[in-house]
Prior knowledge:
- By secondary structure, this protein is α+β, with helices and mostly antiparallel strands.
- It has helices at residues 20-27, 47-50, 105-113, 121-131, 158-169, 201-209, 258-268, 274-279, 313-317, 320-333, 421-438; strands at residues 4-14, 35-38, 68-69, 82-83, 132-134, 148-150, 185-188, 193-194, 197-198, 215-218, 221-229, 232-240, 243-255, 271-272, 286-287, 299-307, 345-349, 360-365, 369-373, 376-379, 384-391, 399-401, 412-414, 447-452, 469-471, 483-484, 492-494.
- The chain is built from 11 helices and 27 strands.
- The strands form 8 sheets. Strands 1, 2, 10, 11, 12, 13, 26 and 27 form an 8-stranded mixed sheet that branches.
- Strand 14 (271-272), helix 8 (274-279) and strand 15 (286-287) form a beta-alpha-beta unit.
Amino acid sequence: MPPATGEEFDYIVTGAGSAGCAVAARLSESGRHRVLLLEAGPPDRNPWIHIPMGFSRLFANPAVNWMYESEPEAQLGNRTLYQPRGKVLGGTSSINGMVYMRGNAGDYDEWRQRGCTGWDYDSVLPFFKKAENQQRGPSEFHGAGGPLTVSDQPRRHELADAVVAGAIESGLPPNDDFNGAQQEGAGYFQSTTGKSKRWSTATAYLKPARTRANLTVRSNALATKIQIENNQATGVTYVSNGVSRTARALGEVIVCGGVFNSPQLLQLSGIGPARLLSQHGIDIVRDSSSVGAHLQDHFYVRLAYRCTKPITMNELANSLPRKIVAMARYVFFKTGPLAANGVTCGGFGRSDPRLERPDLQFNFSPFSYASRGPEGAIAHQFPGFSLSAVHLRPDARGTVMLKSPDPLAAPAIRFNFLQTQYDLQALTTGVRMARGFTKQPSLAPYVAEEIVPGPTINTDAGKMRCPTCIPSAPAGWDRNPPIRWSIRGCACTASDGCGWSMPRSCRPCRRATPTRQRS
Length: 519
């Protein structure tokens, strides 16, 4: 059956995630433009989305999560790697850990040096400030009154204090603002929360815009193809309630599907490597070998520890009475452990002192998990906490390619991790540094033993290929600045960062601050 047609809009935005919500809200703001926003997932009504600590219940929930798996990684014993990705209004900003991190100023300046005029840090800082509603108020580096609420941790945690102190005792400088004058150091993270609730882009941008007559939001509507006529993008075909429909775009089609779904949609539409498209019987609109290439990720290693004191989230996870009390405190007072985002503190350091800026991030969480189940991470049966060492600027480059012409089929995701000496060395150093934190006077009294990966796995004998290595935040597509890719003029605007014409440098760690900085 051919798709139903007839609707016309000035702009069509595919994907109501971190970028798409902001783009649709801004385009519809003047009231002059008719905007259609398509989202494959449901509305963000699941209550766990809005409870900060509820992100653990979304980690493996297929109702709001694409739950992708990578292809086998040769350097990791051919293991596949789990890739949670938001499938709901707000996208991954509705299911992630809410850490607010812009990235290092030097990374933006490097973009400028590589030819991206207007993307140096001095140029983008005003947009970060415009987007921000900073709890601490306006300053040289922060803004107030913007749509995106940024907050301090609602309470100090005894164990988090010890982790920060241990990192400082190891040599990292204290830092109370990782988005301020410098990134390096140890301290508490801020989060994209407000009034003890998650502040996703659906909350920040889309919710205030929903009453506009010129903005149409369609959830449970999967974009399956960009319609292209005479080398111009003229509309989008999407499936909603089992019916295929086509909406026409008089202005532009803006692809905001994220790091995996943006290249997938372009390839389904005939824009990508010609050989790949031919293999799947897709008519070639434009042979572009870079679509789906240059995938970059922040690879991390998780370390888990048994804690000497019952002060972790594991005790809550394993006790029904404690869960009831915690939920009551949150529902009636918006306080207690559920009001915090869980990834409370950490730091940034360098794997080599000769580096100009940090290439390692450290994250602390007051829980440890034994496995992943249908309801999320399953905690150990004893008090525990986790530290992770994240490599922010890896050499590894991967791909996102179609495995099937079926739009519902997951793409083939390949990272090609740990194939260079630098990537191995940086992660090895990061693990060594994280372990060093636990041996300092402030933190050592809380450490009973290292349980994952365990003391028998040392940092000089293949530690980086242990089962705790996980990719953190893909950076090759939605972590690049938005750029316009034109087929003789209008065509597709890749506002979520389809970065095939961008420099191949990885901009590390910009969590919870995607392309919406252009708001």
